[in-house]
Amino acid sequence: MPGVNDSKGCSALQVSLGLTVLLTGSAVAAAVEELPLEEIVVTAARRAQPLQDVAAAVTVVNPDQYAQGGLNSLADVLAYVPGVIFNDNGAPGQGSVTMRGVTNIFSTASVGIYIDDIPYGSETSFAEGANFALDALLADIDRVEVIKGPQGTLYGASSMGGALRYITREPSLTEVSGRISTDFSDTYHGGFNQLYKGSVSGPLIHDMLAISLSGFYQNADGFIDETSRGLKDVNGAQLRGGSAALLFQPSDKLKIKLNYMNQKFDFANANAVPFDVTTGTPTAGRYDEVAPTNTPTDIKFELAGATLEYQLGWATATAVSSYQKFAQKALDDLTQAFGPFVDNALGAPPGTNSVLLNFDITTERISDEIRLTSGNNGKLEWITGLYFTRESSSNFQGTIISPGPFNLVQQIFPSGYKEYAGFGDVTYYITPQFDTTLGLRVSHNEASVSFTGTGVFAGPDIDRKTVTDNVKTYLFNARYRPTKDLSLYARIASGYRPASANLALVDPNTGQQLSEPFIKADSLWSYEVGAKGNVAGGMFGYDAAVYHINWQDLQVFRSFMGVNVGGNADSNVLINGLETTFTVRPWKALSLIASASYSSSEVAHDDSSIGAREGEQLPGIPKWTFSFSGNYEFPLTDDLKGFLAGGVNYKGDTKTSFFGGTAANGTALVPSSPNYTIPHYTTADLRLGVNIKHFEVSLYATNLFNQYGFQSATTAAFGGTATILRPRTVGAVLTATF
Among 103, 148, 448, 511, whose CB has the most other CB atoms within 10 angstroms? Predict the structure, then answer.
């Protein structure tokens, strides 16, 4: 059963809580800066600010410190960030990020992902923008800024839940430096894993021109076995990538940065364990799947960008331009779902035909932004800018029937998106301690799609349809800092996802179009109050926020005769939540962190369009998450230092769909898929090691107590498929710097 512990004796929660009190932390706590809170500087508001002064909930992540504990993926890291959920789709490069209960029921992202100031990914549902969240933690990343709450004024469309920014390292204009690391590990019920990373940075012309280069290669062995062919560890994956940056700074006023990044992920089968939707019991085995053939996937991502900054004296002018390309080529096995239909249509005995699906998605996107940012003068501060993006995407789906012959479906739907926007905000200091901010973004969006298909399940061809929309998003902040160690804020902000054309679904009996011709933009308003500060000279720190969100016209998949197409829910969604983080540093060598988040993300009234009852929690959102972490360092000799760390995180029960039932007016509420409630689980991490001058060695264990559980799951009438937690992995990391 999911949620059961594989190990004997005391529970993971009991032991991990003990570790937390005693020595706590995982690689997470090692990421805590040995600085007072106000000295951590971020650019979440598009200007450099102390973290404590940002009137929003922001978490800063140092990926290098996480990596020392074997936590190398975005899913690993976000498990320790309150209010943020990574929905793992079972393979590298696939998954979605949600913040504050603003879940991705539809395929358009609700969290904006950025590389520095460059937006990543597709803005359309037809290119599955929500399901390919960028995991760039293996790249040359200085920090990750997780900005919670709608960021519609500065970050635009699809940042209604928040924004996640990868801040890359700048090449050094003054000195040569580098970093090399290896990570070797072994996974229970799996095999040997290896990861190699390296980076180098330095001047080509001292104080004027510098370059940085980095690369990585990871071979992650699998831990899922395939029963029908007797194969072991079929979900292994290979990841490789690199980045380069060139920095030109001929004067104190002008800075130009060129950057390039690429990633490539390959795997033969996903982490996909079939289970009984009624009982939650894996039907093939706890670490087994049934895949009569390999279903290989190849994902490639490439980005090139240029950023220019010029100091005008009275403001900083910034221009950012980028090009990116994303491609996925995948093969999926649909025999269980559609094999019986094909056998029946051909008059063949059951089990005769296999049904595979070619699933190819590509996106090409350019974006440009220019903005002016005033200095931090403590009187009147402002930002204003213009933004443009254009993307062209394609989604091809075609079945391969063997032995057949039979044409189930061959279809392609190219899509496009354009956005023009002007934005700005103004901060006025009423007193040095109290200020207010007003922000506005005006956007014009154009989304288009066309469709061509053949086969039994193909819909009617559609000439290119375009929907245009004009959207305004707003921001209001009030911030009060009674002392240098306390910041209070209130924040009201709005966000949205763009409207879209829709695919046509026609009733084959009557010819009536069942789907709506267009999918409306969904939007939300967020109301938040928060407090950040520290006491006793930084020994105790805190960051707390309480919020309420009203979400209208939620974009969803609507089901007609068992077929899902895009649409909008009839009901609003009301979200209430809180996030807290407490830090204790009794002395310099010890850091303890405790975080908690609560999110009640509920349907406001009975809604037959999605099969939800009033008050139902949205799928994919646990109400509670907790994490405890810390790090303890101690001297062994004058040059040799040791460290010991451990941590625990908890994820509450999570639904895969709605319960459905009967509405108050007697209407049947039928969700598009049956619900299975994924049980809560707790995982723990541990690491220890030594460092001496330019070398560090650490030994670690992730999922220390070998907790078995479902990270995420999908369900259908014939059963469910779950992505399970990676079993206990024990490894060693060696890092050398120069």
Answer: 148
**Separation between Cα atoms, residue 304 and residue 241, nearest integer Å:** 14
Where are the extended beta strands (E) located within 553-623? 555-560, 563-568, 573-587, 590-603
To 10 degrees, the CA torsion angle through 706, 707, 708, 711? Answer: -120
Q: Which of 224, 34, 66 has the alpha carbon at shortest distance from 700?
A: 66
Task: Report the candidate in 408, 342, 324, 356 with the shortest Cα–Cα distance to residue 127.
Answer: 324
Q: Within a 13 Å sphere around the CA of 576, how many CA atoms are in the beta-carbon half? A: 4
CA distance 126 to 99: 22
- Indicate the pTM of the whole model: 0.92
645-676 per-position pLDDT tens digit: 999 999 999 999 999 999 999 999 999 899 99
d(CA 283, CA 713): 14
Hey, how many other C-beta atoms are within 10 angstroms of the C-beta on 468? Answer: 12
Which residue, chain included where needed, has tokens 């354009």? 418
For residue 48, what pLDDT band results from cuts at 50, 70 and 90? confident
DSSP annotation string for 701-723: EESTT-B--EEEEEEETTEEEEE
Distance (Å, rounded) from C-alpha 128 to C-alpha 283?
29
Q: Which of 573, 456, 465 is nearest to 516 (CA)?
A: 465
Task: Give phi and psi for 438, each to the nearest 5.
Answer: -120, 135
Q: Collapsing DSSP states into helix, strand and coil, what is residue 68?
A: coil
Domains of the chain in start order, with CATH, are: 12-737 (2.40.170.20)
Distance CA 605, CA 614 (A): 4
Contact 620, 98 (CB under 8 A): yes
